[in-house]
Amino acid sequence: MHENARANRAAALLSVASNTVLMIAKLIVGLLTGSVAVLSDAANSGGDLVASGIAFAGVRAAARPADHDHPYGHEKTENLAALIEGVLVLLAGAVVAVEAGRRLVDGSAGLVGVDLAVAVMVFSAVANLAVSARLRRVARRTGSPAIEADAAHLASDVWTSGGAAVGLVIVAATGWTRVDAVVGVAISLYVIWIGARLAWRAAQVLLDTALPPEEMQAIEVVLAGFSRDEDISFHALRGRRAGSKRHVDLHMVVPPDTTVRNGHAMSGRVKTAVRDALPNTEVLIHLEDH
Q: What are the boundaries of each domain within the chain?
């Protein structure tokens, strides 16, 4: 198995294990204490668990080589997984918002075992901080959008768990139980925003949105160097992303007396230079003469 594929798979499994443990712990403590903030965070972790499972399936599918039915490969499976992750997180946030809003209007029941609930929330924040940092490092190295989305989920959980802990401390200090519901509403709105942002970003890749301006500019700098040093020019430059891979195509105009052999040699040098500037990039060049 390719090294990047192994790293992505290990990161996805780590996320699945972490979310499983945290979801169970939060659910148990939330039911024991009656805290809607803890239950909100448990629902968030449940959504993340499903999302992590989808990410795991996505990175495995994306690692498969191209075949007859998918001649361009399976890399977009990761973007599809990231889109589903975002939608699931958004829905989990919406469900929690409804319940927290109801508790805010009706009033929360008295809480018990607040110390235990605070301890679980703090543990959750620390665990998610460590796991998200690990996943972010893997995503930075492999370029995996599914692992990047998972890292963003867990990073958002650091804030939601921390916010829940602060709210519970205030409840314990003041006895105003509606603070617990207010924190639950705030957590749910933040989760909805995170889910919507992840889904939007994944959808843009699935719709073949152009590469970011800074990446297109890096390619243009490479092409400008060749135009300056050799009697060639370029036009019709396009770029898109599929999973962790970039796809770039362009037209290269060469002198009319250029042989096929020399033309392909020049295009090979251009491809190598583009890949050096932007690793993991597939480059397709169409040759034209003046």
A: 3-206, 213-289
